[in-house]
């Protein structure tokens, strides 16, 4: 959304999915002749195509947003058309937030009805709050009520999003139970309620690693269909994800395109995967894993950072020295233990690998 009175439309640092991919969504809407659930902008088929990519009959190319098993996307989209909410679960950096945003954009044309879950998320963020100036001036009434994003989604029949659900305190989480089971949000202060209209549903994301922080109550869990987002299955898939996303990010940062960077991307992905999995790609050498997650998302940041270095201080070609510092920063989170793990990996694996001499030298230089 652009604030009224500003003339910077289209200048948003990070446009919402529905704006960034407006042309794809429009083309899909035009091509889509399948039945749509109430208030959906697209049919489930077209939503899945938006996420997974494809070419439409009119020649429009829909870029893949999510790279992974087709079935995962199909189950996620289908869930949204049922009376159960969708819980996207996975380790950090598996595109939970990303998929949630694109699903909301494709289904409802609006990805902004968002509650960010933290340990301090209050009940008002999930239900409603009050505008105290109005409350004092006019007494309790609907005009004084400040609806939460969830309440707005219920009233409009659109998709609400809750990020990091398991970080929210248990009692606040539980205010979702009535919303998801009865599809209503009582306002006892006014003797009223807001009933969800058709088209309302909710997408929550939760981090695997947070398990036990604020475990979902079983009553709440039952309202959700859980879809687990896996790490990319192969190195090729992960390289593809990183390359695509870096290309998009680079364009939004006005960095020159760097197609020659693929070799470096492959290297970053290889290092991350080997350290994550505790074994080299050929299965021959065991390596220790550092404490960080080394997710795809972090690989994307390392490469984007490297590309910016290459553009501003190099000749625009992504080289080992541009990614080495970024890799070190991602791997060494705990200065003592992780540094040892990294040194060992460097000497035992990187040094011995054919064609990795420059990379080894660059890493040695920043690790010293
Ligand atoms: N399988 C995937 N397909 C497409 N993009 C991915 C995939 N895995 C990770 N990403 C990228 O990783 C980035 C971070 O993902 P994010 O949604 O923030 O992770 P999470 O919320 O799971 O921690 C996104 O920019 C996304 O493009
Ligand atoms: Mg997230």
Automatic annotation (TrEMBL):
InterPro entries: ATPase_dyneun-rel_AAA (IPR011704), CbbQ/NirQ/NorQ/GpvN (IPR050764), P-loop_NTPase (IPR027417). One of its GO terms (molecular function) is ATP hydrolysis activity. The lineage of its organism: Bacteria, Bacillati, Actinomycetota, Actinomycetes, Kitasatosporales. PANTHER family: MAGNESIUM-CHELATASE SUBUNIT CHLD, MOXR FAMILY PROTEIN. This is AAA domain (Dynein-related subfamily).
